[in-house]
Amino acid sequence: LAKSSYDTIPDAELLAKYYSTQNTDWLGILLQRYTVLLYGVGIKYFKDEAAAKDMVQTVFYKVLQEMHKHQVTYFKSWLYTIAKNCCLMELRKKGLTTTALPDDTAVAAENTNAEEHLTKERNLTFMEEAIEELNQAQKQCITLFYLYKKSYQEIVAITNYDLLQVKSHIQNGKRNLKITIERLQKNAR
Amino acid sequence: MLDNIKDILANLNTDVDQELLLRYIIGNISDADKRTIELQMAEDPFLNDAVEGLQQVANKAEIERVIHNLNTNFKRQLANKKQHTKKRRYKDNPFIIYTAITVLVLVVLLVYFYKVKS
Predict the structure, then answer these.
(1) Which residue of B has its CA nearest to A54?
(2) I want to staple A150 with a disulfide (CB 3.0 to 4.6 A). Which of A23, A90, A144, B69 is the partner?
(3) Comparing C-alpha atoms, which of A110, A107, A62, A99 is closest to residue A82?
């Protein structure tokens, strides 16, 4: 993939340049950073490469049309939400899913992101206790992935879970850890 | 080993290098880079979904060409949109064109009268 001199400019800076000049070239640079991710998400939802390509183009078009109407702070989260909604809408049109779309997706995505930033401030005092409270599968996958630095494939081989289960145990485990740590911190106050 | 515990809530930077990601999909990646990508995947559902999708592509070597084509089409679309906006600006503001014509006619007349006089 071609490298550009803009690669080192953070998303937020490109966004600011776009909002201050309304020059879509900045938006173009920003969007092309995510072509691979958008294409991958498209394939995950449609299981079809041609449909995924169409979806990427639809998202590009939609962002070009909509961007000036929103004050986006976390571009990546916003774009992910747009992409997922595009996929779900298309699948709904085809009658392949009945999943409801969130009402204000951009705001929801940004809240999630802001929430994650808060965790930076949390201390790790309760981590070991929280790990002990996880269910066996989550505890095993979290320990192997973070503490023993095993790759996904190695964890698959060790635990006999499939790849999707391993990823799911790690993600759910992480979420449960955050919840438990918050509870333990609240109790300690 | 317990030092690694802090990675769990570390909020890692999830900006992924697209080239590195494609190397991960193809399987041509060092252990250290693989670790970086997988830590980011655990942090970032967008990346995780994308990897799950890309891993389903039958001919993974083709992904780079597809991405290149998508980006080229998008650049063309952007250029067309800009051109269209420019044209519309003139269309919506015929005053610009009338002013230009008037100025041109005045210049021609001035030159003509100057030559006749001299």
Answers:
(1) B70
(2) A144
(3) A62
